[in-house]
Specification:
Elements: H1 2-13, E1 26-27, E2 34-35, H2 37-43, H3 48-51, H4 60-88, H5 102-118, H6 122-127, E3 129-133, H7 141-158, H8 161-168, H9 178-183, E4 185-189
Antiparallel strand pairs: 1-2, 3-4
Helix pairs in contact: 4-5, 7-8
Length: 201
């Protein structure tokens, strides 16, 4: 208890590193620098410098793992229902039953809600990464859903080679797939659960 009291007193006696004359409210959650209430309220507990620092780009492996996790979350429930239907009704084509796609629709709705709140799908949240705009600001839902997901899938339907070309762009210095360039986005490491606070993959 005494350690906690000493920590609180040390913060209250310190001044903000970016705003001299302002008392510190908290220590930055990232670097530990004392920061005032103004900095803390605008950056989810981050100092001014950490808030506006360029976020670290996500690794290629993290992006691949996130894509696999998202694909599994979308496909496995429907495949499971299809297998159950085959076992129950052996003479019918399981994949032609509309009911087995209900879980996929539910997953898509959940994913859209996650993206709206954090800029990260289920898989990206698991890997600690998120999507932001090219300038670092939070990416809009329509930008992620339409330009990063729907458009590439539609193009892959017309040309299967598009998916390979799209992925090859990831090995560049900026680690941006072709759909990232089209959507004007990057995939970066999230600072924490409040990924929308990056302020601007």
């Amino acid at each position: 208890m005494s350690d906690f009291r000493e920590a609180v007193e040390s913060i209250s006696e310190a001044q903000c590193s970016e705003h001299p004359g302002f008392s510190a409210a908290i220590a930055c959650a990232r670097c530990g620098t004392f920061t005032c209430a103004f900095c803390a309220s605008s950056g989810a507990g981050l100092c001014f410098r950490c808030l506006h620092a360029a976020p670290e780009l996500a690794t290629c492996w993290a992006r691949l793992a996130a894509s696999l996790a998202d694909g599994a979350a979308l496909l496995l429930p429907s495949l499971f229902l299809g297998v159950l239907r085959c076992l129950a009704l052996p003479g019918e084509n399981a994949m032609q039953a509309p009911a087995i796609y209900i879980p996929a629709v539910f997953v898509l709705l959940v994913q859209a809600n996650l993206i709206r709140g954090t800029g990260a799908s289920f898989g990206k949240r698991l890997l600690g990464i998120c999507v932001v705009r090219g300038d670092g600001r939070p990416a809009e839902v329509w930008r992620i859903v339409l330009l990063r997901n729907a458009l590439p899938m539609a193009l892959c339907g017309y040309c299967v080679w598009f998916g390979l070309v799209d992925a090859l762009f990831l090995v560049g210095e900026e680690r941006r797939c072709l759909h990232d360039w089209v959507a004007g986005t990057r995939v970066v490491k999230a600072l924490g659960r409040g990924t929308r606070s990056l302020g601007g993959a």
